[in-house]
Write a structure and sequence with these properties.
This protein has 269 residues and is of the alpha+beta class. The chain contains 6 helices and 11 strands. About 10% of the residues have low confidence.
């Protein structure tokens, strides 16, 4: 019996992530250039209220659809499948149905909280602070998701007189690689790893200093527990950024800090 060849396509994760990053960077930069001069003196939550919706709208209805539409052939890789006619006719059950049914795209929303822990030189410049965030993820494949995060840390600048309070706004987008679920039921675990990039804004309280902005990048690892629409998510991120303190002589030095977060994630199925 002959075995005809059938060709299908799959998305290249590396190419897709590269194109999304190329589109996200100018979008985020343009939003900051547009809003920061207009919101000088605003409270940190007021600035975030403007930045977060614009970032989400630009990524969900702008960058990601354009990448799929304009670069579909570039991010798709042809794969040749050898299909046996006798096997296909003899196995019309779940295996055949599974191959024919496409995976549905899922949206995930999360409101985590945690702690920002300065490391090394950053620990001598910033105090450990409480962190709150909002995350919106688009799951393109069972093993790949793109996550946009906007967060707010309440800290103190140890290098300024009186250890002034500083609000740190963090905004970034990244890719997550997720492995197959482990376990079953409420004990189901989904480990993941990720990388991403974005920016930070340092806004001081009680002193006459303009808010400063810097680029940041991170690596992440964590897991999700649960198998329903509501899941418990744990995540640790290692950030690399440049911190510009008014009271620090080493302005612009590359610094490290760790962000530990936990929260309930809602998954739209």
């Amino acid at each position: 019996m002959t075995h005809p060849e059938r060709r299908t396509t799959r998305v290249s994760t590396a190419r897709f992530a590269l194109l999304v990053l190329a589109g996200a960077y100018p979008v985020i930069t343009a939003i900051l250039y547009l809003l920061m001069p207009l919101t000088a003196g605003w409270a940190i939550w007021q600035k975030t209220l403007l930045v977060a919706p614009m970032m989400v709208v630009a990524m969900v209805w702008g960058v990601i659809p354009i990448v799929h539409r304009r670069f579909g052939r570039f991010i798709s890789q042809a794969v040749a499948l050898i299909v046996s006619l006798t096997g296909a006719l003899a196995s019309p059950g779940p295996a055949g149905a599974q191959g024919a049914a496409p995976h549905a795209t899922r949206w995930e929303f999360n409101l985590p909280s945690g702690t920002l822990i300065p490391i090394g030189g950053q620990g001598r410049a910033l105090k450990r602070g409480d962190h709150s965030a909002a995350q919106l993820a688009w799951r393109s494949r069972p093993t790949l998701a793109f996550t946009t995060t906007v967060g707010w840390t309440r800290s103190r600048d140890l290098a300024t007189p009186g250890k002034r309070r500083v609000d740190i706004i963090m905004y970034d987008i990244g890719a997550e690689w997720r492995r197959a679920p482990l376990g079953a039921g409420v004990l189901t675990a989904r480990p993941f790893m990720g990388v991403g990039a974005g920016g930070r804004t340092y806004d001081y309280r009680g002193i006459r200093a303009h808010a400063t902005h810097t680029i940041a990048a991170y690596g992440a690892a964590g897991t999700e527990l649960g198998d329903g629409r509501l899941r418990l998510r744990f995540e640790v991120r290692d950030y690399v950024s440049g911190f510009a303190s008014p009271g620090d002589q080493h302005i612009g030095r590359t610094r490290h800090d760790a962000l530990v977060m936990a929260g309930l994630r809602w998954v739209r199925q």
